[in-house]
Amino acid sequence: MKYDFCCVGSALVDITFQIDDDFVLKNEKRGIPKGAMTLIDKEDQIKIIEELKSLGKVPEKACGGSATNSIVAASLFGSSCYMTCIAANDDSGEFYLEDLSDNGVDTVSKLYDSHLPTGQCLVMVSEDAERTMCTNLGINTIFSTSNIDEEIIKVSDSIFIEGYLIASPEGKESFQKAIELAKLHNTKVLVSLSDSFIVNSFKNDLKELLSIKCDLVFCNEAEAREFSERTHEDEIFDYFKSYTSNLLVTKGHEGCVGYDQNTLIKVDGFAVNAIDTNGAGDMFAGAVINKLNNGYNLAESAKFGCFAASEIVQEIGPRLSKEGYKKIIESFSSL
Question: Which of 165, 185, 160 is nearest to 79 (CA)?
């Protein structure tokens, strides 16, 4: 089987709650900054979940993980995809693998027997639609180079790697092996920087890994500034050219900017009423890589990405129904 994309990332199940500004302040007092991703112990995560439930909050459960959301989007837009990840032999692990299969994404069918649970991300969406994430990696902490499948990379046109991977103990080595195998087999390398926390915490490691010259890097404004240690757009772009031949920087409702080889790109956003930004960047990346695989240039692909992201922020959660992805394709074609 040949794949348009293979993906390397964390298998997570999202537990999403709506929160008010008072709870945002509570989180900040316990060291959980609004709008960012914080790694958290399982016990602390459970305590916050129970606290939210005691306030009458009802969670929504969905399979997640940044790369997972992107590759599911690419699959439902029509790409052939494979997900490289590990999940524990528990209810959440079964739920995760069934979800991938149901959305047309191939993966290893093995569930791992471990004292560690399947990874879980507590997502808290505040009144201004901003999402704050508390992630317990669970079994993802034992993801290693042995989980990187050379044959899958060999038969894939591109590999998509999430920056979050580097947070696991053997993440850097796994990241490096995936890139080296991709280069060996002429598989394009696409990377998402994932989160400002990741860039800030693992900046030197990321720079070392990305020095191989990626084919495309995705990031938002904060991640771009953190990685480049620059503030002006032209300086940021010049800096990134040492690491990638193509760059897309998302700017929320304003759209995105970047460059394709040496051509500057600017795509305006689509005006909508956003109620939940969770998954917007993931949807953007999934939409972009799907269009690129279908022969569109980066600017055209970025426009589709911005449109798809504008649709996901109007819903609760990081995913749409299957019908929702079909409607995005139909609506975009009529623009």
Answer: 160
Question: The tokens 């390398």 sit on which residue?
Answer: 189
154 pLDDT band (50/70/90 cuts)?
very high
Domains and CATH numbers, the chain: 3-11+65-113+139-333 (3.40.1190.20)
- Is residue 9 a contact partner of residue 68, using CB atoms and an 8 Å limit? yes
- Per-residue pLDDT averaged across 98-102, rounded? 93
Quote the pLDDT of residue 119: 94
pLDDT in tens, 11-49: 999 999 999 999 999 999 999 999 888 999 999 999 999
The C-alpha atoms of residue 5 and residue 9 are separated, in whole angstroms, by: 13
Amino acid at 42: K
- Check if the beta carbon of residue 280 is closer than 8 Å to that of residue 313: yes
CB of 10 within 8 A of CB of 119?
yes
Eight-state DSSP code of residue 121: E
Q: In the structure encoding, which two tokens stand for residue 162, read together?
A: 């999430």
Read off the pTM: 0.91
